[in-house]
Amino acid sequence: MSASSNPRSRLVLALLPALWFGACTDKSEGRISGVDPTNFLRFREVHEAAGISFTHDAHFQRSPTQPVAGGVACADYDGDGYLDLYVIGGDSSGNLLYRNKRDGTFEELSARAGVQLLGGAWSGSTFVDLNGDGHLDLFLCGIDGTAPCILLNKGDGTFADATPGSGLDKVSTNSYCVAFGDIDGDGDLDMFLSQWKVDRGDGHNTQHLWRNDGKAVFTDISDASGVAMAFSGGNAYTDTTFTPNFVDVDNDGDLDLVIAADLGKNRVLINDGRGNFTNITPSDVLSDHATGAAIGDYDNDGNLDWFVSGLSGPGLSGNHLYRNPGDGMFVDVTQAAGVSQGGWGWAASFADLDNDGWLDLVQVNGFGTSPTSAYSQYLTDPTRLFMNNRNGTFTEKSAALQLDDVNRGRGLVCFDFDRDGDLDLFVVNNLGKPSLWRNDGGNIQNYLTVALRYKGGNVQGIGARIAVTANGTTQIRELRSGCNYVSQNPAEAHFGLAAAAVVDSLVVTWPDRTQTTLTNVRSRQHLVVQY
């Protein structure tokens, strides 16, 4: 393997232990690129065997709140190289911190770590370094009268509440999802907070966009940035924002905003590089009921596309897939792609489940509590696995791949919890037990996982773009601290490589727009690239 980098960048390549990713065994023979994944890929539900045992409960006072809750965050919070989970357990049982034991099982440490938070009503959660000390903190969205919460990682396995004095004490107490990104290039991570079903008075100071001072103290800049006007037009309205994501949709090197919102209020906001946003929302993206969202380059054309979960049924338009031509003016290609029917959709994520080099699409769903309820047709909605056909279309294959999940899924994480080279799925089910779907067989094909270590207050390199070229095809990933709907994927890039044993080039474009390039990178390993 050889490496080169921009003179302003310094490269350190960390190869994690061979027992983690199997790099000491040459398994490049016998790849099955192009074969139907049903011939080799299966999912197995293993949450009990993995030591994850709880039941999500919720007894909230606001009637719309209870059936939409159930969040999870995923990251390596203790720095041991394995991915951990922070799960919203409900208002009576408290939240749960599952530390990965590196043997396919987890141990629950919420009380010891100080993150159980009994008695609160919580929704989305995110691991993110808020104060620039290199440790991943926790941010929790509060609902049903509970304010958001900041828990700072002390670096010893415990967390401390830093909400007082953070500027968030006056935030609306019905925030669902959160996304973080450096909108102004000052090196720390700013925040967009969604707040569904909140009345917005005169339409100003909407408490959506918050600037971080680098020490986990936030200032509302919704008005000054142009974000408030994009939703209100200066008039009173009811907030319906659900799932925000910072993502560079126009390929100019700064982070723009895409927000999935209920009642036809999706938004695409373009950043001028200084944290000022212009509303360019195309008419194609004004879907009727948007809930969750996924970001990814599903057609490998170098532009990041946007999938939005919705409601399927009579008079409803269902899910939407918006293809990005490269300038953020998304085009609706849902019907041609074959992804419209998802029941009552919630969290969604792009993920290359069969490691063929093309992003597949996972969506969890379901609604209602009784077969006699008004929503009984959504009660046993199956989770959707839309497998990429590599031609702009998808085929739903959840049953064929033995992922028979008909629970009321809300939060979703796609992550390689056992570090065997394929992506597994964790689902928080509303008012039920969780699901941990282990991917068995995806690692028959080759893969590469890349994590970054960046400078200053952005240790994970949020906003960096990674491009991998192998066998004539280039794939891109952008590292995000975003939201699938009340849930967060880990900030690392997983690439399926099919039969390619070697990556011809790996290019990291850092948030400051400098680049690091590696060539002749061996597959079937996990890399950590440092700025």
Write the layout of secondary structure elements.
Elements: E1 2-5, E2 12-15, H1 18-21, E3 42-45, E4 72-75, E5 84-87, E6 96-100, E7 106-108, H2 110-113, E8 122-128, E9 137-142, E10 149-153, E11 159-161, E12 178-181, E13 190-193, E14 198-199, E15 209-212, E16 218-220, H3 222-225, H4 227-232, E17 238-239, E18 241-247, E19 256-261, E20 267-271, E21 277-279, E22 293-296, E23 305-308, E24 312-313, E25 316-317, E26 320-323, E27 331-332, H5 334-337, E28 345-351, E29 360-365, E30 384-388, E31 394-396, E32 409-415, E33 424-429, E34 435-440, E35 446-453, E36 465-470, E37 473-478, E38 487-488, E39 493-498, E40 502-509, E41 515-522, E42 525-530
Parallel strand pairs: 4-38, 35-42
Antiparallel strand pairs: 1-41, 2-42, 3-34, 4-5, 5-6, 6-7, 8-9, 9-10, 10-11, 12-13, 13-15, 14-17, 15-16, 18-19, 19-20, 20-21, 22-23, 23-26, 24-25, 26-27, 28-29, 29-30, 30-31, 32-33, 33-34, 35-39, 36-37, 36-40, 40-41
Task: Briefly summarize what is shown.
This protein is mainly beta and 531 residues long. Helices cover 4% and strands 37% of the residues. It has 5 helices and 42 strands.
Explain what this protein looks like in three dimensions.
It contains 5 helices and 42 strands. A 5-stranded antiparallel beta sheet has the order 1-41-40-36-37, with no helix packed on it. Strands 7-6-5-4-38 form a 5-stranded mixed beta sheet.
